[in-house]
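so im writing up the methods section and need the ABC transporter permease record in one place, dumping it here so i stop losing it
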Amino acid sequence: MTGAVNELVSLLVLLLFLGPFLWMVVMSFQTRTQIFARPPLIWFRPTLANYTDLMNRGVFLDYLQNSLVVVVLTVLVSLAFAIPAAYGFARFRFRRREDLAFWVLSIRMAPPIAVVIPYFLIGSFLGILDTRFVLVVAYLSFNIPFAIWMIRGFIEDVPVEVEEAAQIDGCSRFQALRRVTLPLVGGGIAATAILLVIQSWNEFAFALFLTTTEARTLPTIVTQFLTFQGVVWGEMAAAASITVIPIVIFAILVRKQLITGLTFGAIKE
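--- predicted struct ---
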């Protein structure tokens, strides 16, 4: 009986979270008349007109390319900076270490909209607005602190004696990190990279305010359907569906790596 209740509660929670997404997907296959029908239509003849109109706009593939380039660069650079910093916080003892670590994390606490104006002014002064570069820099300022704290926890779960044994065998500290520690925390690094991909792909505020046409990413395409004549709900739903589907597929494909990484070190002997 308890198991049935748990399954029912889980199903209700799942429907609660999936309801808006499923409604959006259904709406993307409806005409304007069907979308505004009251009561909402359960049975209707689906149409691909919204997707056809979306592709005819000619900017979708450009936005998709921008998203892919920005996400890949952001994740790679974030990990390149975060791994050495996380190792330093995890292995070295220095004055006010925890205060500095918390200061790094506090950067991540600020909402993007709170700092978008300073980024806009700096980008305007340097002449880098509406470029992929300004987006990568903006995303790094939030992703690197997050990655440092994630990877630091994984490294701390590796006994320091393992590295000391490698150093006794002739490895330098860097070689011990590269040959011993990083392979052991590979699952955690993969989980961190997955979360960085999701965060960077879904980011909206920086992509909207720091770009205009050339470097716009996929999430901002929905703003094109807010016209003076009203909201083009069908095409907006189609654009949102296409934007969400790649990251959903990605999350499904890497779910095992994500779970393995996030549970690394959870069981202590």
